[in-house]
Every structure is written in C-alpha cells, then in structure tokens.
Design goal:
The protein is an alpha+beta fold. The protein is built from 24 helices and 15 strands. It folds into 4 domains: 1-168, Beta Polymerase, domain 2; 173-255, Hydrophobic Seed Protein (Orthogonal Bundle); 273-453, no CATH class; 456-515. It has a 7-stranded mixed sheet. A two-stranded antiparallel sheet has the order 6-7.
Length: 516
C-alpha cells in the first residue's frame, strides 16, 4: 500500500514535506543539482526542474526510475549542454523538445517547456515551445503530476495544488477536465491506471468529463491504449482501474467484452454475476502469484508476479458467456461451449489491442482450457453436468492429455482453475480444492514417471515412414498424431507395441487399402 502523505495544513508543513521528498531523492540529488548548475551557469541562464512522476513519487515515498526534467532551453541548447557532461546523448524526440542522456547508470530526459495546442480531429499535439514553468505544468495530465522541483536550489513549485490532491489521494486536472481530456483522451486511460497503481480516486468533475468524452478514446491509437492497459493490469489493484473504465463507459470502446459481462440476473433464472465473478477471479489469481507448494513436487512451483498472461486470462476467461447464454426450461441457465467462443473473442480483442502473438496464444489457450478440470472428480466430490461442479474421475490417459494440452501453461492453468472457484458454498469450495489437490498429485507423479513435459510418440517420423513404406506428407502426419494419441492413452509401451499399433491403424487406412 502506498503511504498517504499528511495534508499541507496538518502539523507537517509544506517545508517538511519538501524535506521528505528531498530525502527520497537523495541518491540522485547531487547529479540533479549538478545538472541544474550546468543549465543555469556559464552564461546559459536556463531554468531546469525535475517534474512530474519523480516528484509525485518522492512525496509518496516510492522509488522512481524516471528522471524527467523540463527546461527553458531549446532542444539544440539542451543537446549542447548535455554532450560534454554525459557519457552519451540521443535524440529521442527533438521535434517534441526532448533530448536523452546517460551518465553512469543514470538516464535523464530533458524537455523544453511546452505550450502545446491540440488538433481536435487527430488528437496530435501542435508542438509549441514555452518560456514558463507554470504554463508547462498546466498542460500536464493531473495536478499530482504538475509539481516540480527547481534545480539546483530545490525550490518546490506547485501552482495547481498537486500536494493537496496528493494528500487527498485524488486525481484532478490542472485545467478544466473536459479541456484536458479533450486535448488528449488517453489521459482518461491514465486516470484508470493511476487508480490501479496508486490507489487514487478520480475527482467528480473529472469523472463526469470521462463519462461524457468516453467515445473520444477511439481516436487514440491501439498501441497507446495497449500500453496503458498493460500498466493497469500489472498494477497492485487492477480492479480499481477496470471498474473506473467500465463505470465511465470507456471500456465500451477499448474492451467491450468486459462490460458485456454485466448480464441481467433474472429472478427466475438465477446465476452468478459474471462481471463480478471475473473481477474476483482476477484478484484470487493475483493472490496465488509467486511460489506455491505443490503436493508431490520437491520444489515449489513458481509463477512470478505480476504475470500479465495469468491476469488477462483470469479477467477474460468467461467473455464467451454473453454469446452462449441460454435459459433452460427447468429454470436454470447454461453457457454451453463458452470457453471455445471465449477463446475466439480473446484472440480477436487482443489482436485489435496490438498484443504480441505469444500473449494472444497463451491467453486464448488458457481461456479454452479453463473448464477442462470440471470433468475431474474423486471420492466425496459432488457429481454434476454443470460447469460449477465436477463429474467423474479421470484415467491416467486423461491426466496425460491435460498436461500435454496445457504444455508450458500448466502452472498458470493450475492457478486460473483454482481461482475460478468463487462459490460461497464452503462444502463445494472445499470439495473442489480437494479434487484439484488430488489432480496435482497425480500430475506430479505422472510427470516424474513419464517425463510428460516432452512427450512424443515412441516412434519418430523416420521410423514411421520406414515401417509403413511411405514418404513425408499428410499421411505421415496423421500416423504421427495417431501414435501420439496412443502414447497418451496407453502410457510408455515400448517401440514394439507402438509399431504393432501403427500397423493395426495402417491396415484400416484408405491409402493402405488403395495399395493392396
């Protein structure tokens, strides 16, 4: 939990709060003051200030890897001052006034004061350099990010009472929120991200503007939306940010499958609130990240957190339910094959949000597999055909298929499946947990006995071709798949038994009959 700084009118004065922030910045302060003197001295006479996130985080007692500086100097002047001082410099955004530099392990980005206007059609800034720190701060997203520390004298600059907002843990904009969000709608996504990262709430006026301007988020590139969504999902409390996006209507435009989970609950067709269920599953999956002792395994299983794939799968695993909901004559509700429909929807949405292929493949596969466990059972476990219960025990063959189908996602599938239990029925919850404990014990035993992480048919492609007298092609592929299925069903049987099964299968194939 991020510590709450005292309010400015408490016993701790603003001067005391400034000293606390300076103490937090102590490791980099000598270098920053050196830079401030460099910009101010030698006839240059330029202002320089640490600004934005690093200042906010210093007051919050959070470490910040960013060192964002703003200055009255123009880009060519910044570069001329930094080159003799830094180990290296680079032009990361000269058109936007930004020059980067590295000295030792420290990296700084120095940007000329901005006084931008925005093209309300494309949402791209019309870059205009300014001469005033105060004017530069008013164009920033939130007042908590519109504080600065002048260098080298460490004067605290807070023209829009960011300190008050910080103490109240409230997000408000330096300018009117409808103007700020109208200039750059991505700031609405940032509000949700800061709610998730820092535990801040959004000022009512800003929240109203977000609701009114929600459709304008569609003018922002998918890449920029993707970056903010990933930061939100990896934050300590993604639920807070996701709820804000849904409640303001922004999610309708960037992740419409999430608000679609708010299915009406008919009093005669009672079922879980799928939206609330999904948020709980996300929180429960996050709680399982890290090391976990698994029965039958000598070493703890590890899914390091924060894990983006696990979190996305937990959030999206049921997005196929709205499209598959059916009211049954007996008064119940069903979602047949929602895992398969959901996997397709996951692939479509994550592609549109510009996620990479590996993430898309992993999240959609977990969505597809998240109900597989509900065919497993054991002594004392309730049996049912509903997705909330589990049916009959599995053979070793079924356990092998579970392992191989999950592949490298098995550890995440364990966590997702366990997290998917949100029932308030303690007996049922305990039975489900016991059944999954039993399954994990069997998985551990089979993996140790049979090295299932790399299971292959007991004849390779060359041996299959030689046995059947065929060349590489579709028929060889079918034969390989058959032997793999045989291996999963029968376990290790040796090459002779595998060859006998291959010949039995081949005798029934049309290609073999055609050669007779």
């Amino acid at each position: 939990m991020v510590p709450t700084p005292p309010r400015p009118d408490d016993s701790s004065s603003r001067a005391e709060l400034q000293r606390r922030a300076v103490a937090q910045l102590a490791p980099v302060l000598p270098m920053l003051q050196e830079l401030g003197s460099l910009f101010a001295g030698a006839g240059a006479g330029h202002e320089l200030a640490l600004v934005g996130g690093p200042v906010r985080d210093a007051f919050l007692g959070r470490a910040s890897s960013d060192l964002d500086l703003t200055t009255s100097a123009r880009p060519e002047q910044i570069e001329a001052l930094l080159k003799p001082w830094a180990d290296t410099t680079w032009d990361i955004g000269r058109d936007f006034g930004t020059i980067g530099a590295r000295k030792g392990d420290a990296i700084v980005e120095v940007t000329t004061y901005r006084a931008d206007a925005y093209d309300r059609q494309t949402r791209k800034p019309i870059v205009s350099f300014g001469d005033s720190l105060t004017d530069d701060l008013v164009r920033r997203d939130f007042t908590v990010n519109a504080m600065a520390l002048r260098l080298p004298d460490l004067e605290f600059v807070d023209p829009y009472d960011g300190m008050g907002a910080l103490a109240a843990r409230t997000l408000m904009t330096p300018s009117a929120p409808e103007v700020s969000f109208g200039d750059d709608p991505l700031r609405m996504m940032r509000a949700a991200r800061f709610a998730a990262q820092l535990g801040f709430t959004v000022d009512q006026r800003a929240r109203a503007a977000m609701t009114e301007l929600a459709p304008s988020i569609e003018m922002i590139s998918a890449e920029r939306v993707h970056d903010e969504l990933v930061k939100l999902m990896l934050a300590p409390d993604p639920r807070a940010g996701l709820t804000l996006l849904v409640d303001t209507g922004i999610a309708d435009h960037v992740l419409p499958e999430l608000p679609a989970l708010r299915l009406e609950v008919d009093e005669h067709h009672r079922h879980k609130d799928v939206y609330e269920h999904s948020l709980i599953v996300l929180e429960q999956a996050m709680a399982l990240e890290g090391e976990r002792v698994v029965p039958g395994l000598a070493e703890p299983e590890l899914v390091p957190g924060p894990d983006l794939v696990l979190r996305l799968a937990a959030l999206l695993h049921d997005i196929g339910k709205p499209a598959t909901r059916r009211f049954e004559r007996q008064g119940g509700v069903s979602f047949h094959h929602h895992e398969m429909v959901g996997a397709k929807l996951v692939r479509k949405r994550l592609r549109e949000l510009r996620f990479d292929k590996d993430t898309i493949k992993a999240v959609s596969r977990l969505t597809e597999l998240h109900l597989r466990f509900h065919g497993y059972g054991g002594p004392g476990v309730p049996t049912s055909r509903t997705a909330d219960d589990i049916d009959s025990p599995w053979t070793d063959s079924a356990v092998r298929r579970y392992i191989t189908d999950a592949g490298p996602l098995l550890s995440r599938l364990h966590l997702l499946t366990r997290s998917d239990c949100t029932t308030r029925n303690r007996r049922k919850a305990a039975a489900l947990a016991a059944a999954y404990d039993s399954l994990e014990v069997r998985i551990a035993a089979l993996r140790e006995q049979e090295e299932l992480d790399a299971v292959r048919p007991e004849l390779n492609g060359n041996q299959i071709a030689e046995t059947l007298g065929i060349k590489p092609g579709p028929v060889l592929g079918r034969a390989y798949k058959h032997l793999l299925a045989f291996r999963l069903d029968a376990g290790p049987v040796g090459e002779d038994a595998a060859r006998a099964e291959l010949l039995r299968w081949w005798a029934d194939q049309p290609e073999r009959l055609d050669q007779s």
